[in-house]
Amino acid sequence: MWFEIICGLVIYRLCKYFFSDGDDVLDVETSDSSALFAVADRLGKLYDGGKVYVGLRIPDADTASRQHIDLVLVNKGEAVVIAVKNFSGFVSVKPDGSWVSESYTKHKAEQHPDPLAETKSQASILESYLEQRGAALPEGYLSCKVILSNPKVSTIQSSSFPPEIITYDQWVKMKPEPKSLFSGWMKGAFRGGKKEMQESIHQKLNFILSTAPMWDRLELKGNKYVLGEFLEFKGKQEDIQALRHIKRSKISRVVVQKTSMLGFAPSRLQVLYSPRDYRSEGASASEWKEVNVRSSTEVLFQLENPSRVRKFKLSSIVSMSLSA
After folding, report:
1. Strand-pair category, 153-155 with 142-148
2. Looking at the predicted structure, is the pLDDT value of residue 23 above 60?
């Protein structure tokens, strides 16, 4: 009997080692990044014809560094710099503009800098960057919003929040209308009565933002996302050699798919990658290249928040987008 139990444990561990995707998705904190993409996806549906840019890293000439911006929504006649706050628990605003959040269970208060002031600063840096690249925006064209996206958040005295703050209750009530018409609430929340900007400026703005520095992104299984910087692949030498062409300067997107294997041999992964091309938004089917590597291959990734290096099994990744 003990022999059968030991054999069962050995087989279980072998299967788990070779076929499991590991716990990368489970133990890494992806909630904040995933919240950005969830908000971006919903904004894209609310604003038919609009474009949402996620995880921008805009150069700041004053500090010689790059300023992280959660989202920028570009619609005809407007652009909105949006900060997404994934706070949970009770949230209130202090007289100095800073925020306090307190967990429902731990009753421990956390202090947060004024998110609206931070977002306005980001908008100023973005406006300067756009001007340097030849897109001088009409006065008052660029606005700011802060969205509380977590359903487990409760705002205390929400009337004390500035109008640029969109609480979760307001967020879930936003609805699109047919033919890209917007309800009065949505116009008040985002448009602010701005006049229509010229088509040429609109196109130029989209081009600049689509080629602006961004964080690399990993899409993980379970509809989770991670922002950061791709560093390198880790694994067997022959697999690293097969992946040698995947470099930031040449490749913009990587897609990972499983291939079927029989028996207990290590499963293989099909890795598809497309060349970088600024002339179009995506590569044609004929331009995609593919290689097959072991599922034990890993991706070394520098997380945006918290800032640390993390290994992800290639088998836990759905896709990877690389910024220029």
Report:
1. unpaired
2. no
Q: CB of 40 within 8 A of CB of 52?
A: yes
Q: Distance between CA atoms of 80 and 189, rounded to whole angstroms?
A: 11
DSSP string, 20-45: --TTHHHHS--HHHHHHHHHHHHHHH
Instruction: Report the candidate in 180, 39, 64 with the shortest Cα–Cα distance to residue 125.
Output: 64
| Sign, CA torsion 114/118/124/127 | negative
Identify the residue whose tokens are 């716990």: 23
Strand 99-102 to 109-112 pairing = antiparallel
| pLDDT tens digits, 58-90 | 999 888 899 999 999 998 788 999 999 999 899
Whether residue 305 contacts residue 321, with contact meaning beta carbons closer than 8 Å, is answered with no
Between CA 77 and CA 275 the distance in angstroms is 33
Average pLDDT of the segment spanning 134-156: 91
Euclidean distance between CA atoms 42 and 168, whole angstroms = 13
271/288 Cα distance (integer angstroms): 10
Residue 116 in contact with residue 165, Cβ under 8 Å? yes
Q: Measured between alpha carbons, how far is 164 from 156 in angstroms, rounded to an integer?
A: 16
Q: Tell me the one-letter amino acid at 26.
A: L
3-state secondary structure of 109: strand
Note whether 128 and 113 are within 8 A (CB).
Answer: no
CA 128 – CA 93 distance, rounded (Å): 29
